[in-house]
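Hi L.,

You mentioned the student needs an example of a multi-chain input paired with its predicted structure. This one should do, with 623 residues in total across all chains.
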Amino acid sequence: MRGIFYLAWRYLAWHRWKSLILVAAITLVVFLPAAIQVLVDQTAAQLGVRAASTPLLIGAKGSPLELTLNSLYLQSTPPASLPFSEVDMVRQQDLATPIPLYVRFKSQGAAIVGTSLAYFDYRGLAIASGRSMAVLGEAVIGSSVARDRSLSVGDHVLSSPESAFDIAGVYPLKMPVVGILAPSFSADDNAIFVDVKTAWVIEGLGHGHQDLAAPEAARAILKKDGDTIVANASMVEYNEITEANRDSFHFHGDYSQRPLTAIIPVAKDEKSAVILAGRYQARDDDVQLISPPRVMDELMATIFTVRQFVVAALSVVGMATALVVILVFLLSLRLRQSEMNTLRSIGGGRWHLATLAAAEILMVVVVSGALAMLLTWLTERWGTTVIQALIVS
Amino acid sequence: MSDLAAPLVVADKLGFAYDTDSFELNLPGLSIASRETVAIVGPSGCGKTTLLHLIAGILKPQSGRLRVLGSDVGAMSDDQARDFRLQKIGMVFQSFELLDYLSVLDNILLPVRIGSAITLSSSIRQRASELAKQMGIADKLSRPITRLSQGERQRVAVARALLLRPPLLLADEPTGNLDPNNKGRVLSLLLDYAGQEGAGLITVTHDSTLLDRFSRVLDFTTLNQAETTA
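Structure written out for the whole complex:
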């Protein structure tokens, strides 16, 4: 039998390209459905972990999925905003600690998360170097942002305009990096954290400029009516908050109406969470309280359905490939009829010749199966890392 | 039982026909003594190769008796015929019938690899190397067959046929595809082996220039008494 396997091996090695193509085709047919199963399961697990750690989320009425993706995974377009007064409302009910989120702006693709220090505690984020943001304008960056842009404490990040044509609106704000987070293997690794007030400054709701009462600003003043001063475009407006100009920064308008994209209510206990959910359900204004785990479950149910279709399609492709492989082997046997006759002439029995053909098929199938198993194992082993990289990118 | 002293071939009223055509073979009698070197001549399609296949046990006679090296090949099962062929008969073909995907050495060792009756041992490997040396291809043992000349290929085929020291060599136009130099060389290798080992040689050939080197020449058209020929 060793001799037969040796001959089969020599045949496959001699026709290496044909053998490699067969092995590749069978490997892919086995590997792809397995990989999809593994990746979908791991994606569900990854998304599920983040959602499970955020059982409640408050936002403006609209798409719960958009709200969840924006608030938990720091992706998708910003949902409609809700007023900051909602934070006070949650706090007054004494059922949960509200963590404000304003996830609207970006810096070179990384989300700028306007929030409070409570967010770090809630997500279990640790500072790897530097410190937390303490005053207006400071930023703490995620580990991936620091690694990808080679940033360290003391460097700066710049907010990106929302649109290339936004020349009259949001000015880029230069923010010093005061801290870098330890890797958390979540969306937080690729985010930039600022105080929610800094996010409002980026939006233009707060700003700082030269003291218009100072003599050097006289040329910029158009009109003075008591405390109200109207200045022209020559007035110097600051795009970086420094110690020297920090005091000049101020906000206009009603504090309670400043925008947030979401609030994470950290309920005191399960009962408080239920009561809070009930109260929001009873409200008929533009605010909603959603359960991110439920939203993600619905999303995953859709993905699982799609997976079933994809796996079914791949199974059909697999069967077609198997038929083609069988055809290749049959044609190969036909082309080798003269060889088989020779082997029979010099003493090869029918059983031995059949074993020779079977050994070749067996070798191709075993090698393909082993490769598919190896690739599936690698997917299982490294798939999580890839998914995490995809989630944070 | 078969042995070197037994006649190579004894056929008595041997009959055979293919299902697919009108060819018939009808040998009233044929006897080839041990150690004989016989050339079988005749026009294409007259049944020379069929006779070789009957002697080798590849085909089974439909009537009559055929004893080869003392064994009734017609009565053998497929497995017995295969083992008989493997151990007692060396086959050489006009188109060499070597396997492209094997090296020279692996082609010589092929009879051992395709059968379970004989185990590949170091002595068989040594025998293969010695044969390669005799055939003048010792320096090409690891080469693929595709990189050999026609003459070298037929020498590989002869070495394969001689590997297990068969008492009977069957050669089907072994020099048909060779130039005059190689024709003589290959035939010498076969005849030398037969002479040294006391083996028999039955060769089908169309080459009249080689006939005087055989101990007997059989004209197949006079042997085959069938009325129709292919």
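You could point out the following to them. The radius of gyration of chain A is 32 Å. Chain A touches chain B at residues 1-4, 6-7, 10-11, 13-15, 338-339, 341-350, 352, 356 (CB under 8 Å).

Best wishes,
N.
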